[in-house]
């Protein structure tokens, strides 16, 4: 084994998942550079026991709900670096290592004068995880500003560049989540940020924040500040209260079902889609079922946002799954709408 490859045993992952669940990894490796990934693959090929272990790649741990003990090889991606790597007539192309903190990277792009990612400010996690989930908020998704990414292929041992069309982006989904999650490990991500920047102010809270401060010609930093303030007012800080952010996807339903719900609940929050369907606000549905602010011994629903489940102390993956299922059952019974969980249970 190469000296830079230090595989640890029975490692605590409590500080590496934003829900703060006490969990241990059977084997654990922090990856700081590509050479270590290549050495790891060679070691897996040569070690029968290691080859049989399921792999789990961790970034910021903000989109996973862990079991108490993981019989896995857990790989923490910590490859750093951020730089301008090119330009086109319309865009700046910036690249970030997979291990960079997402929010810190967004703030760095703004400091360099590159607008385009500001609506995704303060989202927890790492850059490498952002395309896996196709993260999105306030009218913007990763796919809207994505250029390409580099991934390490554990099957061939080679690097592969993925262009946007190859990532199969969907709503909080990509090929790396639903198709090739066990084969590729993202090493770095490139974004195309517009030279002719225009603010995305489709959400009323953002426009209201700017209007209240007499900001009529907002800059990317102004929009970022608005997003940060709004998120801080509604969402708990994982460093203070363990959580995985938005726990359920906003469901997309037929116009017929949306209209049925609207007849009984005229204040139903919904957004028309281009195909004639409607996206419903999952948080609103959950709140109507009385879950907002719910608390039990170890888990609860955040009092300011029904879309967020929180760790009240000592929560296990089983506790979280049970509460999520109760909420899903209630929403289905009351509205006929199935809620899909965003985080991955491991």
Brief overview:
The chain has 346 residues and is an alpha+beta fold. Helices cover 27% and strands 26% of the residues.
Description:
The chain has helices at residues 34-46, 48-51, 102-111, 130-133, 175-178, 204-212, 220-234, 255-264, 282-288, 317-335, and strands at residues 8-12, 24-31, 55-58, 64-65, 69-77, 82-87, 91-97, 136-137, 140-141, 146-153, 159-163, 184-194, 242-246, 252-253, 270-272, 278-280, 299-301, 308-311, 344-345. A hairpin with a 5-residue loop joins β10 (146-153) and β11 (159-163). The chain contains 10 helices and 19 strands. The strands form 6 sheets. The protein has a 5-stranded antiparallel β-sheet with strand order 6-7-12-10-11. By secondary structure, it is α+β, with helices and mostly antiparallel strands. The chain folds into 3 domains: 8-77, Uridine Diphospho-n-acetylenolpyruvylglucosamine Reductase, domain 2, CATH 3.30.43; 82-194, Uridine Diphospho-n-acetylenolpyruvylglucosamine Reductase, domain 3; 242-345, Alpha-Beta Complex (Uridine Diphospho-n-acetylenolpyruvylglucosamine Reductase, domain 1), CATH 3.90.78.10. Its main location: cytoplasm. Its EC number is 1.3.1.98.
Strand-helix topology:
Blueprint: E1 8-12, E2 24-31, H1 34-46, H2 48-51, E3 55-58, E4 64-65, E5 69-77, E6 82-87, E7 91-97, H3 102-111, H4 130-133, E8 136-137, E9 140-141, E10 146-153, E11 159-163, H5 175-178, E12 184-194, H6 204-212, H7 220-234, E13 242-246, E14 252-253, H8 255-264, E15 270-272, E16 278-280, H9 282-288, E17 299-301, E18 308-311, H10 317-335, E19 344-345
Parallel strand pairs: 2-5, 3-5, 4-19
Antiparallel strand pairs: 1-2, 6-7, 7-12, 8-9, 10-11, 10-12, 13-18, 14-16, 15-16, 17-18
Helix pairs in contact: 6-7
């Amino acid at each position: 084994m190469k000296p830079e490859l230090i595989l640890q045993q029975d490692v605590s992952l409590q500080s590496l998942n934003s829900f703060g669940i006490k969990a241990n990894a059977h084997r654990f490796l922090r990856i700081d550079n590509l050479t270590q990934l290549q050495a790891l693959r060679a070691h897996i090929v040569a070690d029968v026991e290691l080859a049989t272990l399921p792999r789990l790649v961790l970034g910021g741990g903000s989109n996973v709900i862990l079991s108490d003990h993981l019989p896995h090889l857990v790989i923490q991606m910590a490859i750093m670096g951020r730089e301008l790597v090119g330009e086109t007539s319309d865009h700046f192309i910036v690249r970030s290592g997979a291990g960079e903190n997402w929010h810190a990277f967004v703030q760095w792009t703004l400091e360099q004068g590159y607008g385009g990612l500001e609506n995704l400010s303060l989202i927890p996690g790492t850059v490498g995880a952002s395309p896996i989930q196709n993260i999105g908020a306030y009218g913007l998704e990763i796919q809207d500003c994505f250029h390409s990414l580099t991934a390490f292929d554990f099957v061939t041992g080679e690097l592969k560049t993925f262009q946007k069309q190859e990532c199969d982006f969907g709503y909080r989904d990509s090929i790396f989540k639903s198709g090739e999650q066990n084969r590729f490990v993202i090493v770095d991500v490139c974004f195309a940020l517009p030279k002719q920047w225009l603010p995305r102010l489709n959400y009323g809270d953002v426009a209201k924040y700017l209007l209240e401060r007499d900001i009529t010609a907002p800059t990317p930093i102004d929009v970022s500040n608005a997003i940060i303030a709004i998120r801080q007012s509604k969402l708990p800080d994982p460093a203070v209260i363990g959580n995985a952010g938005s726990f359920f996807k906003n469901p997309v339903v037929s116009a017929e079902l949306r209209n049925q719900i609207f007849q009984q609940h005229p204040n139903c929050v919904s957004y028309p889609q281009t195909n004639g369907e409607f996206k419903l606000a999952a948080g609103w549905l959950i709140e109507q079922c009385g879950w907002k602010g719910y608390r039990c011994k170890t888990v609860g629903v955040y009092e300011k946002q029904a879309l967020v489940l929180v760790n009240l102390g000592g929560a296990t993956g089983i506790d979280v799954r049970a509460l999520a299922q109760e909420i899903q059952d209630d929403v289905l019974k009351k509205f006929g709408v199935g809620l899909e969980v965003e985080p991955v249970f491991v």
